[in-house]
Structures are given as C-alpha cells and as structure tokens.
Description:
Helix content: 40-55%
CATH topology of the largest domain: Rossmann fold
Order of helices and strands: HHHHEEEHEHHEHEHEHHEH
Distance between the termini: 50 Å
Number of strands: 8
Number of helices: 12
Largest sheet: 8 strands, mixed
Structural class: alpha/beta
CATH superfamily of the largest domain: Alpha/Beta hydrolase fold, catalytic domain
Radius of gyration: 19 Å
CATH architecture of the largest domain: 3-Layer(aba) Sandwich
Strand order of the largest sheet: 1-2-4-3-5-6-7-8
CATH class of the largest domain: Alpha Beta
Amino acid sequence: MEKKINELYSDYRKGELSRREFLKKLTAIAGSTAAASMLLPILEENEKSAPDMQNTDPDLVAEFIKYPGATGDMRAYLARPKKGNKFPAVIVIHENRGLVPHIQDVTRRMAKEGFLSLAPDALSPVGGTPDDVSNVGELFKKLDSEETTKNFVAAVKYLKTHPNSNGKVGCTGFCWGGAMTNQVAVNAPDLNAAVPYYGRQPSAEDVAKIKAPVMAHYAENDQGINAGIAAFEEALKKNNIEYQIFTYPGTGHAFNNDTNPSRYNEEAAKLAWQRTVGFFKAKLK
C-alpha cells in the first residue's frame, strides 16, 4: 500500500492529477477521508526532508539564483560541474508545467555533460512555479508573451557574462519551452545554438531573424506541432540558416519526459539527447 500511495503522490506533484482527483484516490487507498487527511501532511513532510540530488551529487554545484529580466528578478535553477572554471552555457526551458523537479533534473544532466546550465522559471513575474501545479495553466495565462520572451533573452545576456561561462550560449526547451527556444533564437542575435524539442515554430518572417544554427526534434505523432515543420524548414533554407531536423518514429509529444510514462520513449529520448549534447559541444566550444 505504501508504494501505491507514494506513486499516487508523485503523479499529483508532477501535475498529472488534480488535487481533487488525488484526494479521491488517496481516500480510496487509505480507506477513509480521515485516514487520507492524516497521510497527506506526512507525504508532504517526507518530500521536504528527502535528499535532493542538487546537494548530494559530488560532481555538481547546483542552486537557485536570480538574474535581471525585463519584468524584474527572474528565479532560475543553475547547475555546473564542480571541477573547472569556464564552461559553455545552455539555457533549459521548461514545459507548460513550469520549473518542476523534472526540469531541474534535466538541467543537472546538462551540467553533467560539461555545461553551465540555467533553467529560468517563466512564472517568476506571477509568483513562480507553485508546489501544486494542477492549475498552473491559469498562471501561464497571466504572462505577457513579449515580456516573457524578453525574460529568456535576458538569460542569454546573463550567461554571456557569467564568470563561469566561456561566453558561448545555447538554448534548448521542451513543448512550451521548445516554442520559447525558437523565440529566443529569433530575438537573441548573439545566441550560438538552438535546440527546440517539439516546439511550435516561428513565422517565416521571424525565421529570417535567426542567426544561430538550429537542431529541431519532433515526435512522429504530434499533428498540431508537425503541421508547421514544412514551412519552418523552407524558411530556414531560404535564409541560409544552418539546421538539422529529426523526427522520431513511433513517438508522441513530450517523448523526452521520463516522469510521464505514457509519453516517454526511452530510445528516442536517449538518441535526441545524444544529438543535442553533441550539437552543443560542437557549436559552443
């Protein structure tokens, strides 16, 4: 029963269940509303006291920081190798759930590959990503799209001059973050590489503004996003922008998210990650 409860709580914290759905299922497992009410604070306390990889990985330095954005201070998660001084830098942009633990983990993975990695919280102007992300979509609706893009462009500037950066900056992102990665490429002429994962493409007019080489990853079964690939590729070619486009057979949207079993595709995720890291190492050295 303990395993079921922990798995249920994990799904809730990842935003896969609303609070109402979570409590209903917890009550069913626990046997009564009273028992569920007693379990909830225990689960929350256990989560707070659980060891965090950012503090226990001996090879990394990881912390939450703030950097100046267009709307004020932006909260972000920063990770880098403990050994060494100057590293190529990579911005990691979260999905439409905000700066959740999964994206923090992806940021650490990027740092383990030898990069200074920064994951900004797009929701900083509206209070930051909440612990309960079941209704986080309402917070995204409050964001101004132009100001939000400027906040991520400001991350490029921040990393360009960071004391642990070699001055080269790349950007990657997933889903909502894939679309934002494209917008950073459009609006930051000094970006050195862009790797959007299944992100909505910019207009042909905006593609002309891109200066960075692009590597784009797409799922085979992602009709809404994939409808824009042909026009995107045509615009990239027309403007002589270096690019690579990969589509992964048998995959759906969000195939990189290993906290979502229904969407995660291990083979495709590993191949896309290998290509992404190789691309960044080549373009940011």
